[in-house]
Amino acid sequence: MSSPKETDYQIAGEKKVIKKSIVPIIRIVVKNSKGQKELKGTLRISHMIQVPPSELQLYDIENEPDSTYKDLVQNEMIFIRKNQDKILANAKLLYKQKTENDFSAGHVKAALEYKALEKLCGDFMSEKK
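The chain above was modelled as a monomer; its predicted structure follows.
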């Protein structure tokens, strides 16, 4: 997850509007109390990396002392759960495009080198044994 950036917006006429989501970047947009769309963050699939299960740590959101951060994380979890099919489909498509060197979509070049990162992850896991 990433915080909103200026690059997540574009100018349409005289208004600054949120860009649409694309395969490598899913934008988290909600309506505020005034009914206006508000960008809360982005899920940047093109920058996700494999992490060995042994290196993951559970995060107990219920014990988060910062209520603002707790609300943010809870809303991100809700978004991910509601959009998991789209997230997985985009991730699989981008992975396939990158590993098959299909650069017909411009965003593929900017994606991480997944095969090289998978090898590094495997090497890391082998060294830990």
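The chain has a mean pLDDT of 93.
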